[in-house]
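Let us practice reading a record.
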Amino acid sequence: MSISRLLRPRSVAIVGASSTRGSLGAGVLANLDRFSFAKPLHLVNPRYDRIGDRRCVRSIAELPDGIDCAVLAIPQAHIADAVRACAEKNIGGLIVLAGGFAEAGEEGKRAQQEIAAIAQSAGIALQGPNCLGSINYVDSVPLMFGVAPFEALGDRPGVAVVSQSGAMASAVRVALQARGVGVSYSVSTGNEASLGAEDFLEEFIGDPHTRVIAMLMEQIRRPARFLDLATRAREAGKYVVLHHLGRSAAGRDAAKTHTGALSGDYSVMAAQVTARGVCLVDSLEALIDVPELLIRLRNPRAAGGTAIVGESGAFKGLALDFCETVGLQLPPLSASTHAALVSQLPVFSPPSNPLDLTAQAMSDTGLYRRVLELIAVDAAFGSVVLTLSLPSAESADRKLPLIIEALRSLDGKPDVVFAMLGEDCPIPQTYVEQIRSTGTPFFRSPERAFRALAAVKRLARSFDVTPAVARALEAPLDAGMIPEYRAKQLLARRGLTMPASRFVVSFEEALKAADELGFPLALKAQSSQLPHKSEAGAVALDIRDDASLRSAWTAMKQRLSLERPGVSIDGMLLERMSEAGIEIIIGARNEAGWGPVIMVGLGGILTELLQDVVFIPAGVGRAQIEQALRSLKGAKLFDGYRGAPPADLDAAITVVEILSTLLLQHPEIVEADLNPVRIHPRGQGATVLDALFVVGNS
């Protein structure tokens, strides 16, 4: 279904047009007049013959056939009949403003399904219901009821705003335009009865006027399609910036495995979208700031870290603290840059990153330019944040002409972001506009500049990561929970190491197995109905002799019989106790259309207490797996801590890699839990101590 007629209509109808100030129909009509919409415009309202100097018909049936887009500015009770009437008139697109549909309960949900079915049958592109409408700034077509001041995109690269919330779409749009950033389209998708955010994303990927798509989502309804479109956007050189609500929410359902309990839907979504080049942000401010950087910076994907140039020694400490928090990398100056800067700065302010120019720049008018030129040739840096104290308009008059001259001379090399200290100080707007005219983003808050630039740097790195997809699927596994002994068989066939073990069904077999394996041993009951064996008393560790084995066997059988009488036990797994090492948890989820995502974290109480986990999509390379492991809070343990030997991190990476391949070959695996995996000293490998899989219907 094409949505071009909806977004770029050559003719428009307003059903429910009105001259009553504050009404939806009046708002849409006022916006079209404000934008000087000169194409055919048809008004429908049974109460009027004319609205202003325009003719008004009494019903949709009186409209000409084939109008491109109609805005339904009428109450919910009349929407279904209006959609049917529009279908009979071959109208191409509909924008339904009214609420009271799925957001209002079951009756509203049925009404929404009805209008969606009518539209789909007629091939109508339906936007909404419960939406604010949309604005096309490329062709100057505002089809929304809120006040939309006229602003043509012209030849500027544009940001397309797509939001399920109309109010948030307006907030982002207005903020970008206030900064002089061009908006190509602004779309409120509302309840998404038919068209969803994914449909508009696809449209804007192919739109030559749009460079950045800024999206605010409460729910991504078609994850697989969204991921495919994100990949296509990256291939087309377009940037997708996403603020997805629900970061703090737990998973929708109580998960059966430990992995599921630790990974909510947000974590799964975040891992998959960022691996495909989506810039995921966590605030409305960032949804405004990051698109501005992506529009204004000459090379948003430039390699290298960031240099900070300021004029306060105290701010150096503040900047270092905040940049570490947000992950903005501040490399040290190269030896040659350091030496060159020594001659430029006072002896009491030695060169460093951040760099303190002190008050010398006020008497040495060329200092800003010389310092920026020196940093520009240092390969360690791809961007510079210039931070100045501007406590008054007078200080702006003294400093900013020098800064603007320096920025013009640099001609965008390197990319510079200007961030002032003194957010609410009155700065003449003409200076702000002159700074922006050089291609330099202007921020009134260094923290917002640092946070946004850190997001852009992460985005640049993610453009080099492409998760693999399964090339050949194996025969599907049977649905249900796969207990430990069978899960380990799957992993062992792929080359992973398990403790020496025997699966037994009687105590006599256990005694014989113990003699073959040698003590100390672990004894674990095996059942597809026991996902958490330790909690059920189904695990006994460090068994040292036959007598201890008999005691553990008897006690375990009795406890399970009393406390879990309905649980069917397949048998017992007897395992040799593993050598010491660092314990990690490796798990995975594959549900809701997002594809498999792997979670890695330090084992034991660190995982639950500190939530020290990280998520990566199945199919990423070894470098990304290592980066994920080293991003854990306790990653110093891997390199040897307080005299401990370094861990065999390569072996841990291999475990993740093999699990990744298994998940891609078996998409029916919805959860995996390798907990714990023990990493031994370097060169001695890693051992999977426990494992289970949950398999859905293939």
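A brief commentary: Residues 401 and 679 are 59 Å apart (CA to CA).
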